[in-house]
Amino acid sequence: MPTSTRSAGTLIFTVANYCFLGIAAALCLFPVLHIVAVSLSSAGPAAANEVVLWPIEFTMSSYSVLVSKASFLTSFGISVERTVLGVALNTTLTLLMGYPLSKTSKELPGRNVYMWMLVFVMLFNAGLVPNYLLIKTLGLIDSIWALVLPSAVPIFNIILVMNFMKMLPREIEEAAYVDGASYWVSWWKLILPLSKPVIATIVLFSFVMHWNSWYDGLIYMNDNKNYPLQTFLYTVIQEQDITSIEQANEATSVNGVTLKAAQIFIAMVPILFLYPFLQKYFTKGIVIGAVKG
């Protein structure tokens, strides 16, 4: 094939590829821009579905209504505390369980039994009532631990970590064992540094799960002062006295539509800030050049 023909084909493919990816990116970005525009618009245009990508009758009233409530900052702090504790606990337990399960049955006696138990509890759940009774019996109602401990061991994440560590070259650990390293030393100094991509993945999964959870706060918290942010925002939308909020000099600026849009955007912001810092690990080479010969 002539070079000119090959170059023309490559150019056409490149242009088509960029066009396709640009359209896909625009489709992903459109809902975000729409939500932001609605949250910054007045109640009338938002209720009439006139807002598309640009705010109409720009106003910050929806955010003011949410932030002005006395319990907003408290619930925000609870969500931050829950997310920090939850991500730290999830990541630690996942890595501690995933590493030994990545070994063979000879290295870890009973490995198949452990795997069967993990798969079983991942597929079958006791249900809402037994879980609530367990949390109540343990005295965790209205406690931050009621939001953290029930999801402390994410089975799906453990399977991800286990499969990832299985793919790492055995020669690396064998060389460390020859030099006198123990399993703990190998895990800390070799496996974890090579596992940055999967660690970033499970951190992101855990962060999203804890930050977006609202139902468990509604169940395990009897006092609304202990609500995490998502539960608090849910109750704001569901309040029966929402009209009294709107009538407090906000009647022409706020309604359920703009409040919901503001709620969605507030919930989205932390994830939008976190993802760029973790994204590089998804595409980075893992063990290129780690094993020679």
Automatic annotation (TrEMBL):
GO biological process: transmembrane transport
Subcellular locations according to the entry: Cell membrane
Keywords assigned by UniProt, alphabetized: Cell membrane, Membrane, Transmembrane, Transmembrane helix, Transport
Major place of residence: membrane
Gene3D superfamilies xref list: MetI-like (1.10.3720.10)
All residue ranges annotated as the ABC transmembrane type-1 domain in the record: 76-276
Topology of this chain in the membrane: Multi-pass membrane protein
Gene Ontology cellular component annotations, sorted alphabetically: plasma membrane
Transmembrane segments: 72-101, 113-132, 144-165, 186-211, 261-278
Protein name: Putative aldouronate transport system permease protein
Species, as recorded: Paenibacillus phyllosphaerae
